[in-house]
Amino acid sequence: MNNALSIAAKGKGVFNTARRAAVIMGRYGITAHKMDGILAHFARLLDEYDCGGTFPLVAAALARSRGVAEKYQGRNLEYAIHGYYHIDHKQLSFEQQAEHFSRARLKFESQGLAVSGLRCPYLRWNGDTLAAIKQAGLLYDSSQVIAWNVAKENESESYRRVLGFYGAVSADEHLALPRLENGLVRIPYCVPDDEALIDRLRFDSGGALDNPWLAILRETHRRGELFTLGLHPERIHLCEAALRETLKAARQLRPSVWFARLDVISRWWLELADAQVQVRSEANGLHHVDVSGPKGVTLLARNVDTLLEGKYWDGVWSRLNGTSITVQSEMRPVIGIPPASPARLSAFLRQQGYIVETMEDGRACSLFIQRESFNHENEKALVGEIEKSTAPLVRLSRWPDGAHSALCVTGDIDALTIWDYYLRFVGR
Ligand SMILES: [Zn+2]
What we know:
This protein is an alpha/beta fold. It contains 14 helices and 22 strands. It has helices at 3-12, 14-25, 33-48, 59-64, 94-110, 129-135, 157-166, 194-200, 212-223, 236-252, 262-273, 343-351, 379-388, 418-423, and strands at residues 53-57, 77-81, 115-118, 140-141, 145-147, 169-170, 179-181, 184-186, 189-191, 226-230, 257-259, 276-281, 286-292, 299-302, 311-312, 318-319, 324-328, 335-337, 356-358, 367-368, 393-396, 405-410. The strands form five sheets. Strands 1, 2, 3, 4, 7, 8, 10, 11 and 22 form a nine-stranded mixed sheet that branches. The site of zinc ion (ZN) has 5 residues, from loops. Zinc ion binds at residues 82, 86, 121, 412, 414.
C-alpha cells in the first residue's frame, strides 16, 4: 500500500477506514458547495461566542478549489498548512518535508491567504519536521498531541491505539502550553478531539459520557494552560452541542479564558518570552518592578505587600494594575538560579512569565532553584513546585489581560470536495 492508504488504515483500522468512507460520502460534495456551507455555519457559530478559529488545510485541496477558503479571510479565522498532501510526514525526509511546506506556503500566498503555522496530517511528524517547518518560514507547529484523561469508562482499545499512533504525551505529566524550540513555537493539540469522541469514545450528547471538553476546559483553566479544541469542520453538526456548551462555559469562567487563534497565541508567546523586566530594590524592602512587554501583559503578585491594592485574581495570585508597580517584601520577589544552570531552565521559566535572575547567592531572592539538568519531562513538576511554595513572588501572567487560561478552536480541513477526499488515498 502507498503512504496515504496504508497510514489511513493503520490509524483507523481497515474496517473503520471502509466505514468512514461510506459516511464520508454524505459529508463532502462533488463540488466545494457543501463544505462552503459547513464553513459558513462554523464561522457563524464561532462569531456568536466572539471566538476565532484556526483551520489547517491541505494545500493540494486548496489548489484544486476556487474561492471557497478565500471567502473566510477577514473573518476571525486563520488557515494553517495541513501538509501539501494529506500523507504521513513521519515517513518523509527533511528535504521532502521542506519542499512540501515551502510549496504549500507559496500556494496559500498565491491565493491571497496568509499562513504562519502547520499541523501534520495524522498528527504524525519526525525529527526533521520542525526544522523543515522553520525553513519554510513558518512560526508555529501544532502537531504534538497531548491526551487528557477525561473519558475513563469509555476509554477503548481503539482510543489507546490511536494515542500510540499519534505519539501522544499525557496531560498528567506534561503542561498543555506552547513552548519555544529552536525559534519555533510548538503548540500542543488536545485529545480527545471530535474524531476520538465520535469514533473511539462513542460520545453522543445526551449519552452517559459527560461532555469531555468541559472537563478539559475546567482542567486547563485550573492549571492556567491552553485548550486547543479540535473539531474537523465536516463534523460540526455531530459536535455542535458539545462545542456550544464548552464555549458558553468558557465565557463564564473567572478569571477569564482568552479565546485566540494559534497565530495570535504564537506571537504572544514569543513576545512574552522577550519581555524586559527590571526590578529595583531599596534597602527598606520596597521593590520597583517595570515591565516592557506585549500589549496586555499583566503583573501578578503573591505574598508581598502590594501597597496599591492588588485585585483578587485566583486565590493565590493578585493582579496588579499597570506595568510599573512597587511592592514591599523582605526578600527580592524573584526566582534566582545559579550561573551554571542549564540554559533550558531559565528559558522555560521566562516563558512561564516568572522573573528570573542569575545569582551566586540564593539568599538574595525569595526562591532559589538549582538544577544540574533540566528537560521537557521536568517542566510540569517544576511549575508545581513553584506554585506550591509560599515564597513571595512577582511574575507576568502567562496570558494577556489577566486571563487565567486560553482556548483555541481548531479543525483540520482534509478535503473540500469528495474528489479531494479520495485523492488522499493515492497521496494527492
Ligand atoms: Zn487531516
